[in-house]
Amino acid sequence: MAENNQSFADDLRRRIRETKTTRWIRFTIVALIFIAWVAWLGSWWVLIFLPLLFDIYITGYIPFTWWKKSKSKSVRAVMSWVDAIVYALILVYFIFTFVGQNYQIPSSSLEKSLLVGDYLWVNKMAYGPRVPMTPVHFPLVQNTLPVINTKSYTEWPKWGYKRLKGLGKVERGDIVVFNFPAGDTVTTKVTNPDYYTLVEMLGRFAVHNNKEQFGDVIYRPVDRRENYVKRAVGLPGERIKIVDGVIYINGEAIEQPENVQFNHFFQVRGGLTPDDWERLGISVADRNQVPVNPADIANITALGFSVNPDGTVPPIYVAPLTPAMKSALEADNRVTKVMKVPASEQVAMFPAGASEGWTRADYGELWIPAKGTTIDLTPRTWAMYERCIRNYEGHDDAYIKDGTVYIDGKPAKTYTFGMDYYFMMGDNRDNSADSRYWGFVPEDHIVGKPWRVIVSFDKDKSIFNGGIRWNRILKAANPDKQ
């Protein structure tokens, strides 16, 4: 036995002695980065993998590169590609998890701050990266592998929420990327409207029993839910109210973003040409003309719109406008009238059961939960914060019966929140599905902060005819906070 131990010791010393200086340098750099990462992670047990790095770079007992000694040229060629791809995926995994990742703007909720077709680099270190809750996942997709249409992650293992130290905290006015809170339950064939809106509109039975239309109903972990991007307008512990589109925090009006937009009607003699739309900066999807019937003329004149002597009505349009765009229209002598579209909701606002009479323009007052704060549990506060307690803070066995709230099966008169929450809204206020409709964003759903626009494509134009927005490349992704 001693002889075998001596042989191993001699072999180990030989391998160490024969290791080239360049490999020692590479190992030292990688080891220091690994140790710094473990210290940041705060889980020192992960250092058990340091000997593995030592073997990979120095001793080589585990034959990771066995294929380099193969006599088959094809094996060596194929495995060299496999080796490169595996290393690349591991690198991408760690970068996307702990540093940042790319993100595409899919909707117009933040126009004109961020445009549809913008590809952003999202800084996850801004607020501190989350330790993966579903650590085994394919790094290049969010939740579904393309083509084969299966999950890109495994349900096991699952880790609890932990956020590493970041460069700062979410501030008012920050544009934030987060996992969609109401995306915990989804239908595989219909994503808009979301599952909860579908259930409210059609009933749970209709959604769950019509797989041909809606597909399967599935649950998604927090970090595998779809990514959304909105602006943080309300912070933990604050009270938010909206009056005629103006946001009040703790009773004081806050400054609107420079590019905030509201839907407006406007009438133009002779109509607008494509060049007019382009100069105004209104996308093709937002260029809508209001249909006018003879029976509508009395209402139209009452609102101040013009009617021609022959009874015809100059074109009336509706589109989202920034203050600057509105001023440009009002300065055009062809424009006879510009007016804000009154809010008229066709869907319930958040929170269901406690938002009677609230609209997107006149909303609240609503208190935003803060970690460590205790509230009295009444039927009204339960209606407001049930989702936070049940869905986000893990009290599945929580309900109200005969006016008494039960948490984990026991009567409860108060509840203390375990997380901070945020109220997120889009700048395109009348065309943004945000916290006014689906509620608070828990801290464990926060992904990061957009940093720069990597590249931007205009879907209304071809690549060779202005399809690439060159002026947006490397543009700050949160201009109001610069």
UniProtKB/TrEMBL annotation:
InterPro entries: LexA/Signal_pep-like_sf, Pept_S26A_signal_pept_1, Pept_S26A_signal_pept_1_CS, Pept_S26A_signal_pept_1_Lys-AS, Peptidase_S26. The chain crosses the membrane at residues 23-40, 46-66, 78-99. GO terms for molecular function: serine-type endopeptidase activity; signal peptidase activity. SUPFAM superfamilies: LexA/Signal peptidase. It is found in: Membrane. It is an enzyme of class 3 (hydrolase). Keywords: Hydrolase, Membrane, Protease, Transmembrane, Transmembrane helix. The active site is at residues 109, 230. GO terms for cellular component: membrane. PROSITE patterns: SPASE_I_2, SPASE_I_3. It comes from the Bacteria. GO terms for biological process: signal peptide processing. It catalyses: Cleavage of hydrophobic, N-terminal signal or leader sequences from secreted and periplasmic proteins. Belongs to the peptidase S26 family. PANTHER family: CHLOROPLAST PROCESSING PEPTIDASE, SIGNAL PEPTIDASE I. This is Signal peptidase I. It comes from Muribaculum gordoncarteri.
